[in-house]
Every structure is written in C-alpha cells, then in structure tokens.
Amino acid sequence: MDIVILAVVIAVVVLGALGGLIVGSRRKKQLPPPPPATPDITAPPAEPHVGDEAETPREEPRRTIEEVDLPDGSAPVTVEEPPAEAPEIEIPEPTAGRLVRLRARLSRSQNALGQGLLTLLSREHLDEDTWEEIEDTLLTADVGVQPTQELVERLRERVKVLGTRTPVELRTLLREELLTLVGRDMDRVVKTEPEDRKPGIVMVVGVNGTGKTTTTGKLARVLVADGQSVVLGAADTFRAAAADQLQTWGERVGAHTVRGPEEGDPASVAFDAVKEGKEMGANVVLIDTAGRLHTKTGLMDELGKVKRVVEKHAPVDEVLLVLDATTGQNGLVQARVFAEVVDITGIVLTKLDGTAKGGIVVAVQRELGVPVKLVGLGEGADDLAPFEPEAFVDALIGE
C-alpha cells in the first residue's frame, strides 16, 4: 500500500513539473522582442566644392560685423528699369490697285444689282413690265430716282438701236452706262499736298457709329503707304477712349498723335495738331472730329468752329464725310446737313462689303456734287481703298 501511495505522489510531482515547463515556454514566446540597440549616428558627408573633386570644407577666418564695410547712405542706390519697348512699326500695303485686290469682297454683296440688270436686259422681248422691273432693281439698290430715270432712258435708246443683243454686247453696254452714272471723270484724289505750304490739312467728319475714328486711322495708313509723314489730331474729346484708339492706329505706322484732356475743347486740339505738324515738317495733318448727330444744332455749330480755328493756320484742304453705306438713303439726310455746316470735298463710304447697295455711290455724289474718294471694304487695317470707278463697276456686273 505504501508503495502505491509513493508512486502516486511521484506521478503528481512529475506532472506538475512538466506543466510548469510548458507554461514557461509559452510565456517566453509571447514576450515582445527587446528594443534594438541605439544606432550609431554618422555625420553626413560635407557638401562638395565647385569643381571636379570634392573635399571636406576647411575652417576659414571670418570677419566680424565691425570689420565689414557698410554703405553710409550718402549715395542713393539707383535701380535701372529695363527700357520700354517701342511698338513695332508696320509697313502698310501699297494703295495702288488695292480696290482691284478687294474686288472679290465687293462683288459678293453687289452682284444683285449688276447681275439683276443683265438678266432683265437679256430677255427676248423688253416690254414695259420689264423696264419697270429694271427701274425697281435700280431703286432697290439705292441709286436714287433721278439717276434711275436717266439710266433707264439711255438703256432704252441703246437697246433699240442695238437690236439683236448678245451677252457680250449687253455687258459692254451696261458697263459703259454704269460708268457714266458713277462718273469716271471726277477728281477722286485726296488732296494732301498743297503746292505752297506744308502740311496738308484734312478734316474727317461724320455722325456717331459710322466708323469715323477707325477710318481716320486707316487713312493714315493709306498716306504712309504712299510715302507721306502724318500727324493725327484727336479732336474727338467727347467719346471715351477715342483719343486712345486713334493713338494706337498712329503708333502702328509711326504717326504722332496730338491729344487733349477728355471733354476738352476740340478746336484747341485741332489747332495744336496743325501747329505741331508745322513744327515737325509733316506732310499731312489728319483731324478726327467728334461724331455728331446731325439733328443737334449746337454740336454742328461746334464742328464749324473747329474748321474756323484750324484755318487760322492755313486753309483746310479736304473735308471728308464718312458715311455708313448700309444706311442707304438715310445717309443722304446726314450728308445734306453736314454740307451746310462745312464744305464737304469728298465722301468716304464704309461697310460697302456688307449688306450695302452699290447704288448709294451714285446717289450721294448726286446729292452733294462731290465724289466718293475712299471706300471701306472690311475690318482689316488695309481694307480702306481709293475709289476706282472701273474696278467698282466690274465688281457690280461680275465676270
């Protein structure tokens, strides 16, 4: 019995020892790893000097603040600003034959007149209804009543004499009659070179919205292209930015611009422009006047004052009236009033490439008794062309 009890005790002791070993091994596995030893910090390598080989920087003697020479403030420090770039001077394209080059642009909007007349005249029998249609075509094109009646009468006579009408004969007949109507013998030269003095003086007038300031700038390009030196007078002092606009046009071609304060006296600006033009020896002075409603009597009187003040220097050589060709017969009303205030010497028709009707050329010349000298055929800087009757008529009737 004692032996059995002793064996049981020994077994319990052995089992307890084995259990302790197992628990101890598990605890050892769950313990976190010990923290790593502190790494040795190595100083970064010295930055290399400029050159092919790098070397460790050496200690060099340094000066204290007392040893450094500081400015005493007696001489001001001047900071040089970069010079402002002068605007690039453009070289306008030659004016000779410019209308011929722009002929396609003109013909796109004007063929209704020329082609319409050719179609009607090509009918085998020209009865009264046909002649009435011809009259309607001319009137619709803004030719005007009196010129229309004259043209129809001449066409009747020539067709009757001609008899059989071939397309070539009809085109030749119509071209000759339209040239007569437009006026091939009128003097269309813009007078800018008086024989006895310099500079030539040109005033540009017109109502609001006709493109007067832009036309003045384009005219400066026309004159520069013809080898003349130009001074611009920004006498439109009532419209905001008008002087800036004109000056920009002038800078493009190297033309000097004379301007005054906003809402200043336009006559004073015009007077100063001519004075500076004389001093500079310029060939031409172009004066851009304010766009005035032709119904405003006081403003129209102001325009007359500008002309009188300028003529204290010298007579005005040209007064160009700018008309919007798309206004048609309404432009004639404007033309009449301006002609009463200043002596108009020439017409500038703008926007003739748009919806304008070519007959306005005839009507405005008949109304004022002065020629169309320039026409605007687009928005480009060089789209202002001297008016050439032959090129204009050829564009009307097409190829």
Which terms summarize this structure?
elongated; eight-stranded mixed sheet; 46% helix; single chain; alpha/beta; 399 residues
Write the layout of secondary structure elements.
Layout: H1 2-30, H2 98-101, H3 103-121, H4 128-140, H5 145-162, H6 167-182, E1 200-205, H7 212-225, E2 230-235, H8 242-253, E3 256-258, H9 266-280, E4 284-289, H10 297-310, E5 318-324, H11 330-341, E6 346-350, H12 360-368, E7 372-376, E8 384-386, H13 389-397
Parallel strand pairs: 1-4, 1-5, 2-3, 2-4, 5-6, 6-7
Antiparallel strand pairs: 7-8
Helix pairs in contact: 3-4, 3-6, 3-13, 4-5, 5-6, 6-13, 7-8, 9-10, 11-12
Briefly summarize what is shown.
The protein is of the alpha/beta class and 399 residues long.
Helix-strand category: alpha/beta
Number of helical elements: 13
What is the residue-averaged pLDDT? 79
What share of the residues lie within helices? 40-55%
Give the strand order of the largest sheet, numbering strands 1, 2, ... along the chain: 3-2-4-1-5-6-7-8
Q: What's the Cα radius of gyration?
A: 45 Å
Poorly predicted ranges: 48-54
Q: Total number of β-strand segments?
A: 8
Report the major sheet. Answer: 8 strands, mixed
Secondary-structure element pattern, one letter each = HHHHHHEHEHEHEHEHEHEEH
Shape: elongated
Alpha-carbon distance between the two ends = 146 Å
Q: In what range is the share of β-strand residues?
A: 5-15%
